[in-house]
Write a structure and sequence with these properties.
The protein has 270 residues and is α/β, with parallel strands linked by helices. A hairpin with a 3-residue loop joins strand 4 and strand 5. The longest helix has 13 residues. The strands form four sheets. A seven-stranded mixed sheet has the order 12-11-10-9-13-14-15, with helices on both faces. A four-stranded antiparallel sheet has the order 1-8-4-5. The radius of gyration is 18 Å and the shape is globular. It has seven helices and 17 strands. It has two domains: 91 residues, Beta Barrel (Elongation Factor Tu (Ef-tu), domain 3), CATH 2.40.30.10; 166 residues, 3-Layer(aba) Sandwich (Rossmann fold), CATH 3.40.50.80. It binds flavin-adenine dinucleotide (FAD). Flavin-adenine dinucleotide binds next to strand 5, strand 7 and helix 1.
């Protein structure tokens, strides 16, 4: 994102609809378009609680969605809101996944990463792009967006669960190896836990296919001012240089798949 083009408008929007996705995750629908592209994020402010980055799960020019997993203070407060309650929104922010006619994409999603990957798929199928959509979760209950993905024409869905309760028993990256061995895919996009994305980058690299990852680092401002999401050792900021970044760039970073920093900048190993 170029700070010179940053749209600083801060919107206060009512939640139009809330959809229960599974036991820990909800989708929030807003009747407004941010003009966002797949991979970009917004800053979501819950009055009296905090402001946090959230991936834009969908934006069709009329409404946008975010899909949020309940893991801590802010996400829990959001899960406690009702339809009609208002939140603050800034965005769209950051970089997006780039694709075009002639591509054959593999989209690899873990956890709520299925939401931004769905946004890629929705736009890509409209351009006639072929898609292998790989969704992984610990068990069947935690799989996200499966029915929505099945509704997309031109998309082949590959499910995997750690416990084998649905699809392939094992990691989504094992399925990726098989998909890439067929030799049709020319780009891999992934969104999910960093440790999973690191293996995706390695598997794609081995198959000589370029990949792009959506990096999740602790962010405060989302616009390159606070420096909270600076990457070791380059100093680049994930909120402006990312969150979508190439494996080519990420593969040699000392922190990749190893640790992240909290609000105080303290390191925590994954
Ligand atoms: C670009 C971007 C896009 C995101 N998109 C989504 C999304 O679509 N849906 C969604 O549910 N969340 C998303 N997140 C994560 C979200 O911003 C919050 O970090 C998350 O909701 C936890 O906030 P909390 O206040 O509820 O929990 P906290 O109270 O802040 O933390 C709960 C636990 O999660 C850990 N944690 C918090 N933030 C991070 C982090 N960035 N990396 C690793 N561990 C962390 C904390 O250490 C703690 O253990 C995204 C983050 C980024 C940077």
């Amino acid at each position: 994102m170029d700070i010179a083009n940053y749209d600083s408008r801060f919107l206060i929007l009512p939640i139009k609809k809330i959809i229960d996705e599974n036991s820990t995750t909800k989708t929030f629908v807003f009747e407004h378009s941010l003009g966002g592209n797949p991979g970009q994020f917004l800053m979501m402010w819950i009055p009296g609680v905090d402001e946090k980055p959230m991936s834009i799960a969908y934006d069709d020019g009329k409404e946008f969605w975010i899909t949020v997993c309940n893991v801590g203070e802010t996400s829990n407060a959001l899960h406690g809101l009702k339809e009609g309650d208002k939140v603050g929104v800034r965005g769209p922010l950051g970089t997006s996944y780039e694709f075009g006619k002639g591509d054959h994409l593999a989209l690899v999603a873990g956890g709520y990463g299925a939401a931004p990957m769905y946004f890629v798929a929705k736009q890509a199928v409209e351009k006639g792009i072929k898609i292998e959509f790989l969704v992984g979760a610990r068990n069947e209950d935690l799989l996200l967006y499966i029915d929505k993905i099945k509704d997309l024409e031109g998309v082949t869905l590959h499910i995997s669960t750690d416990d084998g309760s649905a699809g392939h028993k094992g990691y989504v990256t094992e399925v990726l190896k098989e998909v890439l061995a067929e030799g049709n895919v020319n780009k891999v996009f992934t969104c999910g836990p960093e440790v999973m994305m690191k293996v995706v980058g390695q598997v794609a690299d081995y198959a000589k296919v370029e990949s792009w990852l959506s990096m999740e680092k602790y962010m405060k401002c989302g616009i390159g001012v606070c420096g909270q999401c600076a990457i070791d050792d380059t100093g680049d900021l994930v909120c402006t240089k990312g969150p979508v970044m190439s494996w080519k760039y990420l593969q040699n970073l000392p922190e990749m798949g190893k640790y992240h920093r909290d609000a105080q900048g303290k390191k925590h190993n994954f």
